[in-house]
Amino acid sequence: MVRKTSDIIFDFIVYFSLIFSCICILFPLLYVVSVSLTPYAEVIKNGGFMVIPRKITFESYILFFKESRLPRAYMVTIFITVIGTFLNLLFTTTLAYPLSRKNLPGKNKILFMIFFTMLFSGGTIPTYLVVKFIGLLNSVWAMIIPGLVNTYNLLIMKNFFANIDESLFEAARIDGAGETRVLVQIVLPLSKAILSTIGLYYGVAHWNQYYSAIMYIDDSDIQPLQIVLRQFLAGSENDITKYNPDIEVAPESLKMTAVILTALPVLIVYPFLQKYFTQGVMLGSIKG
Amino acid sequence: MFHITMLDNISHNKMKSNNNPNSKTVKLNKTLSTIWRYRALYIMMLPGLIYYIIFKYGPMYGILIAFKDYQFLKGIWGSPWANPWYKHFLYFCKTPYFKELIENTLLISIYKLFWGMPLSIILALFLNEVKNKTFKRITQTITYMPHFLSWVIIYGITFALLSETFGIVNIWIKNLFGKTIPFLTSTKWFRTILVATEIWKDTGWGAIIYLAAIAGIDPTIYESSKLDGASKIQMMLYITIPSISNVIALLLILRLGNILNAGFDQIFIMSNPMVLSVADIIDTWVFRTGIYDLNFSLSTAVGLFKSVIAMVLIVTVNKIARKWGEALW
Question: C-alpha dihedral over A239, B197, B208, A195, to 10 degrees?
Fold first, then answer.
């Protein structure tokens, strides 16, 4: 079949635009990496940074791990991400599963109560007062507990559970299995995909967490990665240069190194788990 | 007279239930026994429900301080009532920021919607045209990726591009025109930067839903139009776009329902005092007034003002969507 000229032009536009979009996304990242690897001597010699540096150095990376607040912030963020995600999944699953059972008395009232919080919330200061009242201010738990259940994720999970074939549970119940056993032995193994997706959402949200840290944390010892990076980028955080008067890395290189080190875990994990990340959008579009 | 009727009613009811053992009491017993049967499920839900009560409904009690003059030592209940009760709302409406905040919030939201949505749709339409599986997968992986980067990281990347000292774009501009542009600190540019970074972050992610809608179109329509000699552009314009127009319309009104959320994290992280006049939105103002200036009552009042309007918007939008049979709830 002969291809139409208009189709050839169309295909060209399509491929060109897509490649252009990819370049728009990758180029800034590439430049960030370049800056982070450029030795100070090169910057002075060339009067600035180049897209592809002639020489590279890992000095700034070594510096970060040797003497900065970053390793500590890393530990805080890893703690929040691991423990936080585990607790998120635990609380979300144990709430979603009962609400997915069709005949549970009071189910609709509870669902409405939960759903209403998506429409209306107390707001910033009232939430702050609750967190303060409970005594969570300036504790790592303030970055975990106030966000234990995300209503949107909860409803996605509830819908997923509700679509599992009821007869599977009945068989188990006849065999005398309790509800907890049904959940652990039948429902959860069937729900690996949704658990991975929701777990990833919670995990990334924890890794990128900023809001709850600026709200509830003043103590610099337990500030997470994103906060430390923000302070560092804004230039209000120069603890590295403070320790090294004869530093051999440009301040810009240090900043970009911090950006890379913060983004790296997400960038490494994402391509392998892309399937799980994207299927959440589809599950979410099934109405609650 | 009243008493007699009451008694009459009660005895009447009693008689009724006595006569009719199959009615209410039995029903109640049945419900109770169902509840008992499902007790494990209720116990399972308990931690999650307690979370909702404390952290979602607890703050609703705190809304009281919007109508009070909150004093730290006296607590929520002990603080005196504001006089008049709408004092803080009135104060906010009269402040010079009022107009500016509303304007910034709406403009930033609308710009993001106006530029972001069409780009997501176009990306989805173009991705749909790619027949090479590997190329398609790689493009999707790359374009979805920025969605998972935090705003702090994107702020850092923006720095690398636009900073006046080492930003590559400014280096190019300087080579061409001999001077740099203060993208991040000028009121002229800042909103554009907000919209551009939002596009960079979420265009790909936003395309997923349209791509899924396109995948749901009946392939036989394309085949028959191909036999009729339709070109790819014609198929895109006359089949694909009309077929997903309902999804587009639905997402559009849902976004309109959220129009008061202009993006707290992004603006809070990327803005600086020099651009506050064009970047300060309701959410950032509420945060600063409450957490930095410690004006709890005023901050809560403004937050409440926004929440109520947002709720009305979302409920309205859902009513409209329901007319098309596409309601969220």
Answer: 20
> Nearest-5° angle of CA A99, CA A105, CA A106?
70
For residues A163 and A194, give the distance between their C-alpha atoms in angstroms, rounded to a whole number. Answer: 12
Residue of A nearest to B152 (CA): A230
Q: Give the closest of B41, B130, B209 to A18, CB-based.
A: B130
Name the residue among B123, B256, B251, B252 with its Cα closest to residue A281.
Answer: B251
Please name which of B317, B122, B263, B133 lies closest in space to residue B206, comparing C-alpha atoms: B122
- The pLDDT assigned to A70 comes to 86
Residue A170 has pLDDT above 60, yes or no: yes
A139 touches A184 (CB < 8 A): no
Residues from chain B contacting residue A98 (CB–CB below 8 Å)? 38, 41-42, 44-45
Under 8 Å CB-to-CB from B102, ≥6 apart: which residues? B282
- Report the topology of domain A67-288: MetI-like fold (1.10.3720)
pLDDT in tens, B268-280: 999 999 999 999 9
Q: Is B317 on the interface with A (CB under 8 A)?
A: no
Please tell me whether residue A150 adopts helix, strand or coil conformation.
Answer: coil
Domain with CATH 1.10.3720.10 in chain B: 95-323
Number of CB atoms found within 10 A of residue B295's CB: 18
Beta bridge partners of B68: B81
**ipTM, 2 dp:** 0.91
Interval B1-24: pLDDT, tens:
334 334 344 444 444 444 555 677
Band of residue B242 on the pLDDT scale cut at 50, 70, 90: very high
Placement of tokens 């890992």 in the chain: A58
Distance from CA of A66 to the nearest CA of B (A): 22
Candidates B51, B209, B232; nearest CB to A10: B232
- Most confidently predicted of A144-148, A247-251, B172-176: A144-148
Q: What is the pLDDT of residue B164?
A: 85
Q: Chain B 252-311, CB below 8 Å of chain A: which residues?
A: 264-265, 268-269, 283, 286-287, 290-291, 296, 299-300, 303-304, 307-308, 311
From chain B residues 77-116, the ones with a CB under 8 A of any chain A CB are none
Residue in A92, A123, A233 closest to B155 by CB? A233
* pTM summary value: 0.88
Fold topology of B95-323: MetI-like fold (1.10.3720)
Interface contact flag, A226 B150, Cβ < 8 Å: yes
Long-range contacts formed by B286-295: CB under 8 A, 24+ apart: B286/A123, B286/A124, B286/A125, B287/A124, B290/A124, B290/A125, B290/A128, B291/A124, B291/A125, B291/A128, B291/A214, B291/A215
Nearest Cα neighbor of B298 from B33, B28, B66, B130 is: B66
